[in-house]
Design a protein that fits this description.
- The protein is an alpha+beta fold.
- It has 2 domains: about 40-145, Macroglobulin (MG2) domain (Immunoglobulin-like); about 155-170 and about 205-490, Rossmann fold.
- The protein is built from 12 helices and 25 strands.
- Strand 15 (about 285-290) and strand 16 form a beta hairpin.
Length: about 500
């Protein structure tokens, strides 16, 4: 199917029901072959940590039915470059704990290798293969090599949305959204990632490197941009990594943020650093890290069941950042929020997948030839799935923020698209309203909302596309979408 062919993605309920048909399947291999009368060999794996620096030891944890297997490690970007191979590694099958989704697999390391200093920062794919001819087994894992000297080789840092990967990962039977084994409030990074399975399973539809960040990286590196890489938890645990960069990027679906992540990035912006959110549903849920960063906790819409709810200080309540009890709407970081946006071309909300341009003279639109009222990104449907917006009113026919939702005073609305919270799908209108106005409220967040493309400056500059699907325009080589992206990267990554 052409990347430009419109396709209605299954909604979350559809995919959850499909996943439930494999009830009792724990592992990636078992889930993939649950319906088969005789299972072929399988390999499941995860790296001991999400990110490493040069000189550190990568531990790969593997469970397989094969007696021996081979691995291949490659950096994936503009091109795929194989950097490490090893054959004839002894295999062993390990039990999957009942609480693997929440507390990890606790498998021993099958092999270890050191990250050489010549490996550049990037996303590293780990492929595992075994099995006889006609009965092959394949597994996959990943890790990130973060820069040893932040900012020395690149002025742009891409932090991958790994918290969102984990929240949607149903490996082991559970996620923060449920699954065959039910809903959990804590999810572990120490388990394989189900999003590597082919096809449209729940995990890879709504999270993952392949869907959003990989096409962005392929485009950016092919266009000549040098990127360094980190993961969400690096922004929390290694905040010094931000200091070497002019621009930090968020791409795709960056939904789950901890308080330290926000603290560190907001300090970066206040100090003159720049951020570009080519993402949507960004920083929507607050999470708390546990087990030295190896797990995340979030009570989400059931925030009144979080033990923090009974505390005097509710700033770390693990529900929506827009919750009135937290008093820290994500608008203050991104300029926008899913609470005031919602869905576009998803659930009951229709749309044409593009922004209406409002301020074509802004520097972000330089060289695009766009005029006021033009449609940006219609061909490739760059507006879709989950969208972020802000409260605004019209002055002289142009949208202007009201700032009642925490949107910064300097925020400019460059483009908008219709969006809305759901009643028929996930009932987001109800649970967003209860977070904003209080549990049991009859009041509802005003509808419709909007996806908002915009920018503010407060120390540094923060740009947002206000939706998850911006990268579709880069895949489709939409000239205006590419030009806006270049304008943002070029201007915000310049030396101070």
């Amino acid at each position: 199917m052409s990347r430009r062919t419109e396709r209605r993605a299954p909604d979350r309920r559809d995919v959850l029901r499909a996943a439930a048909t494999a009830a009792g399947a724990h592992t990636l291999g078992e889930l993939a072959h649950a319906a088969a009368p005789a299972q072929p060999p399988f390999i499941d794996a995860y790296a001991g940590r999400l990110s490493y620096r040069a000189g550190e030891q990568v531990a790969l944890h593997v469970s397989t039915s094969a007696p021996r297997f081979a691995i291949e490690v490659a950096r994936v970007g503009k091109k795929r470059q194989v950097v490490y191979t090893r054959d004839d590694v002894p295999g062993a099958r390990h039990p999957v704990p009942d609480d693997a989704s929440s507390h990890g697999c606790r498998w021993p390391a099958a092999l270890e290798f050191r990250v050489p200093k010549e490996w550049p920062s990037g996303y590293y794919q780990v492929l595992l293969r075994a099995g006889a001819k006609g009965r092959p087994a394949r597994g996959e894992a990943f890790f990130v090599v973060r820069p040893s000297r932040p900012g020395r080789d690149a002025r742009i840092l891409l932090q991958l949305c790994t918290n969102t990967y984990n929240a949607y990962n149903q490996w082991g039977g559970s996620s923060l959204y449920g699954g065959p084994r039910g809903l959990v409030r804590r999810v572990s990074f120490e388990r394989p990632y189900l999003g590597f399975l082919p096809g449209d399973n729940f995990t890879n539809l709504y999270s993952g490197w392949r869907r959003w960040e990989r096409p962005f990286v392929e485009w950016a590196e092919a266009a000549g941009y040098r990127l360094d890489f980190a993961v969400n938890s690096d922004v929390e645990s290694h905040p010094e990594i931000l200091d070497g960069y002019r621009l930090v990027l968020s791409v795709g679906h960056d939904e789950y943020w901890s308080a330290p992540m926000r603290d560190h990035l907001e300090k970066f912006i206040a100090g003159g650093g720049n951020v570009a959110f080519f993402s949507g549903n960004t920083c929507f849920w607050q999470v708390r890290s546990e087990a030295d960063g190896r797990a995340l906790v979030s009570w989400k819409m059931d925030f009144d069941q979080d033990p923090v709810y009974k505390a005097d200080d509710r700033r770390l309540l693990s529900g929506m950042w827009s919750n009135r009890l937290v008093k820290r709407p994500e608008n203050t970081l991104t300029g926008v929020s899913f609470s005031w946006g919602g869905y576009h071309r998803f659930f009951e909300h229709k749309g044409d997948g593009c922004y209406t341009v409002h301020r074509p003279d802004h520097w972000a639109f330089a060289g695009t030839g766009l005029k006021r009222g033009d449609r940006l990104g219609a061909r490739d449907k760059v507006v879709g799935y989950e969208c972020d917006g802000c409260r605004f009113t019209l002055k002289g026919g142009l949208p202007v923020p009201t700032h009642e939702d925490g949107t910064p005073e300097t925020f400019e609305i460059l483009g908008t698209a219709p969006a809305g919270l759901s009643v028929k799908g996930d009932q987001s209108l109800l649970w967003v309203s209860e977070a904003v106005y209080g549990k049991g409220t009859k009041r509802r967040v005003p509808q419709p909302g909007a996806a908002v493309l915009g920018v503010y400056t407060r120390g540094g500059t923060a740009f947002t596309t206000g939706c998850t699907e911006w990268v579709r325009g880069l895949e489709g080589r939409d000239r205006a979408v590419e030009r806006v992206t270049r304008n943002v990267l070029d201007r915000l990554s310049r030396p101070a």
